[in-house]
Automatic annotation (TrEMBL):
<protein>
    <submittedName>
        <fullName>Sugar ABC transporter substrate-binding protein</fullName>
    </submittedName>
</protein>
<feature type="signal peptide">
    <location>
        <begin position="1"/>
        <end position="21"/>
    </location>
</feature>
<feature type="domain" description="Periplasmic binding protein">
    <location>
        <begin position="47"/>
        <end position="297"/>
    </location>
</feature>
<dbReference type="InterPro" id="IPR028082">
    <property type="entry name" value="Peripla_BP_I"/>
</dbReference>
<dbReference type="GO" id="GO:0030313">
    <property type="term" value="C:cell envelope"/>
</dbReference>
<keyword id="KW-0732">Signal</keyword>
<dbReference type="GO" id="GO:0030246">
    <property type="term" value="F:carbohydrate binding"/>
</dbReference>
<comment type="similarity">
    <text>Belongs to the bacterial solute-binding protein 2 family.</text>
</comment>
<dbReference type="InterPro" id="IPR025997">
    <property type="entry name" value="SBP_2_dom"/>
</dbReference>
<dbReference type="Pfam" id="PF13407">
    <property type="entry name" value="Peripla_BP_4"/>
</dbReference>
């Protein structure tokens, strides 16, 4: 019993001594420096579809600030809207043996073999927003199935025959083989299949082109005077879709999706869009840098473990518009 009392007293004294030292000097974070050392001097190569639009610009801004803060190198290789250029950029990066390659795919097939080659060479690969059919170490980006499912259900609520509307809707896709198209379209058709309240009268590819989307919408509206709604697959492209609706003078509900740049909020505010499903580029950027940090600290080999981070959606409407609804690239870079 005396032994136990002595031990208890020793613990109390020790804890009091530690508490006294902590109060005077604080506690040293023993894992901080080793963590920073794991990141310092590492190399990350980013190969976007193009650095000419908001999504890659936003991701790059977040990654660049993190690279400067944590001491790793970020090297951007612009594919400039060319799968050939992008493939060459990834192939060249493989020869340089960076620690991580971050890729925005054009479609589900073009980079598949090259990404596998990178992992076979021991390079970890992160895909952002646009998935390949080949699964790499990580995917960070939009849940395209979830976005399509939401848009389809909203059209049932807004345009369904049981709501007293025509039930007629149209779809303006991106390129037919892009992840944003194939997974979103599958979700829309699965949700609306055999539903008597909705009829898809047109489903065409706008190829991310504003002018092409505008032309498609104009034609569909002319052919279907009682068209109730349109689901578009990207707000930048669907500025053209919205323009065609406004020109027609008809009340046609337009749902689109995008990264949530300030132009999306402006489009909702001025009536170009009724809803924007935002996958929130700053949030995706945060998920990207977290993924990079995890992979650089991990001792697992490339391809040994695989995970997905679907970024939460933010629904932007006139009713939900607020100061935090959208982001500004200049602020993000600042």
């Amino acid at each position: 019993m005396k032994m136990l009392k002595c031990l208890a007293a020793s613990v109390v004294v020790g804890c009091m001594a530690l508490a006294g030292a902590s109060a005077q000097e604080g506690l040293k974070d023993e894992i901080r420096q080793p963590t920073l050392d794991m990141l310092k001097g590492k190399k990350v190569v980013f190969v976007p579809m193009s650095m000419s639009f908001d999504l890659p610009e936003g991701w790059a801004a977040v990654m660049q600030k993190d690279a400067e803060r944590r001491g790793y190198q970020l090297d951007i290789r612009d594919a400039n809207w060319s799968t050939d250029t992008g493939t060459r950029a990834i192939t060249q990066a493989i020869t340089e043996k960076p620690d991580i390659i971050v890729v925005q795919n054009f479609d589900v097939t073009s980079y598949a073999r090259t990404l596998k080659k990178a992992q076979d060479q021991g390079i970890k690969v992160v895909q952002v927003n646009m998935r390949s059919s080949y699964q790499t170490d990580a995917f960070v980006g939009a849940d395209w199935h979830g976005i399509g499912e939401y848009a389809a259900n909203r059209m049932l609520e807004v345009c369904g025959k049981d709501k007293g509307k025509s039930g007629k809707i149209a779809i303006v896709q991106g390129p037919a083989t892009a992840a944003a198209s194939v997974y979103q379209l599958n979700a829309i058709t699965a949700t609306l299949k055999d539903n008597p309240n909705i009829e898809i009268v047109s489903s065409q590819t706008g190829d991310w082109d504003q002018s092409k989307a505008r032309g498609i919408a104009q034609t569909v509206i002319q052919q279907n005077p009682d068209l109730c709604g349109i689901i578009g697959f990207w707000d930048v492209m669907d500025a053209g879709t919205g323009a065609a609706i406004q020109e027609s003078g008809k009340d046609i509900y337009l749902i689109t999706s995008g990264g949530g740049n300030k132009t999306a909020c402006q489009g909702v505010e001025n009536g170009t869009f009724d809803e924007v499903i935002s996958y929130d580029v700053p949030g995706q950027g945060r998920d990207l840098i977290s993924t990079i940090s995890i992979l650089l600290q991990s001792d697992k080999d490339a391809g040994e473990e695989k995970f997905v981070l679907y970024t939460p959606n933010k629904i932007i409407t006139k009713d939900s518009l607020g100061p935090e609804s959208c982001w500004d690239l200049d602020v993000l870079k600042g």
